[in-house]
């Protein structure tokens, strides 16, 4: 075992009193106001900067020199906070708006003393990060999909959340026993569940609280306590994990995961882990709740009540889905020494089939239903959880390339089916060797055999955010990378000959 320092979040459901719930809502509103204030200041400065650059370009100055010549810069947190401190109101000195009394400028937030200052500071940090993410995405320095221009958070649309920090030497965020959490300005809030695990880590000196993020989910408030934890990370798999070896995982919609080796699930050893389809199960209730919400009058109490009902259903669905995924990923990481997965491009898999006016799509409704099923299964979340849980429990992650036709290849002889399988083809049949089995199990066997280990300590080499494109595709104006099941190489299909990788593995085994 090697002891290392990691950042871990401990999430607790809260049971606040009515007064505390009102204070939590007030802090969330203050954080939303501070974020919008920072985005407004940044956007105004950005517009002035663009106008100055355009004026210099019109005079004949090259654009790159004009950008360096303008004096307007986008303010960051220190400048925004200093300017706000100079004009914000003080309820102890100003009972009325000073602008009405002719005493000075308008005070934008005379209520600021009622909330913790860290709610403002963390919101300013979030605004800086949002603006920087947009700039990095615009310059091509950020992986993943394109980040849009920062927008204002709207009350009733944005999630109620805020983040509080403290000085570690003089902590104001701490546990009071096992069932209460002390928060600055809010007080001691009761926990719905026990904080014994975190409290014991703190008592042993193995955890130090850094910050806490409070967020509303449905009708509940949750606290995510971020800590620096001295954690023992296994340097290698356990004896039981080595005995089970590697497992290939083929994620799907019909079944959540098809495994190349059985896993204890629901009191039995299964290779096909059933998909609970939490989104589909809650769809009828959610549809009725959303229709009731659409019939309400804007601004009425009935509309607020209907909105809470919709949010509660969505929140419960998300919690149940998260429970299923955490159960699956932890059992995989603790049972096997190597977990092999596919490098799936979920965004490409869930693209709409509408097409364009010139070339309209086909089977749009069916494709939309499939997209909902894929998103409900949360392939990307399974991959994300396996990545860090494998490190915690001594397992290893192996990734099967995005362009490997795992469902088209026979797991016994390596023959590659020249015909592209459709979703209706649930059984794989090999012509040369006569193998007949479930297509998902066949894919799981191929994933276990063809996946390449990911080097620990330097991140994944293949990922959906920064994934490469097809070797034949150009980098600029590129095609969206997506997992496909048709044979990747062009030309006549191979019959009876296993792929080169399988041949090499057989030679090494011999």
Folded structure, characterized:
- The protein is of the alpha+beta class.
- Among the domains are: 2-13 and 158-233, no CATH class; 239-468 and 479-509, no CATH class.
- Helices cover 40% and strands 19% of the residues.
- The protein has helices at residues 18-58, 63-69, 77-87, 98-101, 117-139, 196-203, 239-244, 278-281, 283-294, 301-335, 346-349, 364-377, 379-392, 439-450, 500-509, and strands at residues 2-15, 161-165, 174-175, 180-183, 187-191, 207-217, 220-233, 246-251, 255-265, 268-274, 338-342, 396-400, 427-429, 436-438, 452-453.
- A seven-stranded antiparallel sheet has the order 2-6-7-1-5-4-3.
- A hairpin with a 6-residue loop joins strand 13 and strand 14.
- Helix 1 (18-58) runs parallel beside helix 5 and helix 9 (283-294) runs antiparallel to helix 10 (301-335).
- The two termini are 35 Å apart.
- Residues 98-104 and 457-510 have low confidence and may be disordered.
Tell me the layout of helices and strands.
Layout: E1 2-15, H1 18-58, H2 63-69, H3 77-87, H4 98-101, H5 117-139, E2 161-165, E3 174-175, E4 180-183, E5 187-191, H6 196-203, E6 207-217, E7 220-233, H7 239-244, E8 246-251, E9 255-265, E10 268-274, H8 278-281, H9 283-294, H10 301-335, E11 338-342, H11 346-349, H12 364-377, H13 379-392, E12 396-400, E13 427-429, E14 436-438, H14 439-450, E15 452-453, H15 500-509
Parallel strand pairs: 8-11, 11-12
Antiparallel strand pairs: 1-5, 1-7, 2-6, 3-4, 4-5, 6-7, 8-9, 9-10, 12-15, 13-14
Helix pairs in contact: 1-2, 1-5, 9-10, 10-13
